[in-house]
Amino acid sequence: MKLIHPYKSFWYLGLLLVGLLTGCQKEKPSPDPEPQLPGFESSPTVHELAPDLLHGASGIVDAVNFDRAVWVHNDHDPHLYLISYEAELLKKIPFDGPSHDWEDMASGPGPDPQVNYLYIAETGDNAEIKTDYFIYRFPEPTEGQEVIDQYDTIHFSYSDGKSYDVETLLLDPLTKDLYLLTKRQLSEASIFKLAYPQNTTEKTTAEFVKNIPYGVLTSGDISRDGKEILLKNYVNIYYWKLKDNETILSALDRSHDLTPRYIVEPQGEGICFDKDIRGFFTISEKGSSADPVKLYHYSKKLDASSAAL
Questions:
Q1: What is the DSSP string of the chain?
Q2: Structural domain span for residue 283
């Protein structure tokens, strides 16, 4: 997870250059009707977390079972943290299972259509040497729940037989397919797919789908209606709005629609849409006494059909 070291400064400068070039590229011409794109406010709402509350925040999703709160996890810590929109700790719930290198989280449908599920990606592999990776799926905790001790395990490896460091997990809410996007390539990411229904009884294979020209991805999300996509790395956020009859994969096969303004965080990793799709949150993996971890919310510009978060 700790990518940016002094001896790798050239690598980070390369990422900055690639990010600037990617952020400026134009979408490919398309005969399909162009969707109406949102604008995003250039000044996010910002709240500081208490010192030492989170020490490696990697995944974030908006809570469905709670008002005005997000779920956050650290990378080497078997707990979920419920944080208010004002960055106050509301609940800390232990996960009764492994936590070696949690890298991202997704929220949405699963086996029971009446339940909202959380998905934790146990997919970090800095040295890219592992042969086994896992996604943990469980119903989103509710008010009285004190522990997460019932969960499904999706145990998998990659179809090309290689090892990957993956920090981006996407859940398509319309198909319930899962997508894993690799991190370590500087100028592209490989997409692997775990189609629904995912196997939870034996080891399975994440199938290679395609490469896309977005490097060093640290997180991503698909909106709850399945019509908008976010991907991020350390310096940029990329946004897609699906056209008519466009799928998640076909959207990612073209250039992004927008590059919303992003205040670069100290190793900012987590991103998610808010549940009403009025904007998105970001959070940094780490902070300092001079610059503590903050929760950012970037709102869509208001129109007649939307309201402030």
A1: -----GGGHHHHHHHHHHHHHHHHPPPPP-SSPPPPPPPB-SS-EEEEPPTTS-SSEEEEEE-SSSSSEEEEEESS--EEEEEETTS-EEEEEEBSS--S-EEEEEEE--SSTT--EEEEEE---TTS--S-EEEEEEEPP-TT---B---EEEEEEETTS----EEEEEE-TTT--EEEEE---SS-EEEEEEPSSPP-SS-EEEEEEEEES--S--EEEE-TTS-EEEEE-SS-EEEEEPPTT--HHHHHTS--SB-------TTEEEEEE-TTSSEEEEEES---SSS--EEEEEEBPP-TT----
A2: 6-299
pLDDT along the chain (309 residues), means of 10: 44 49 46 78 94 89 98 94 97 96 97 98 97 98 96 98 98 98 95 98 98 97 98 97 96 97 92 98 81 93 55
Total count of domains within the chain? 1
307 occurs within a structural domain: no
What is the CATH number for 38?
Answer: 2.120.10
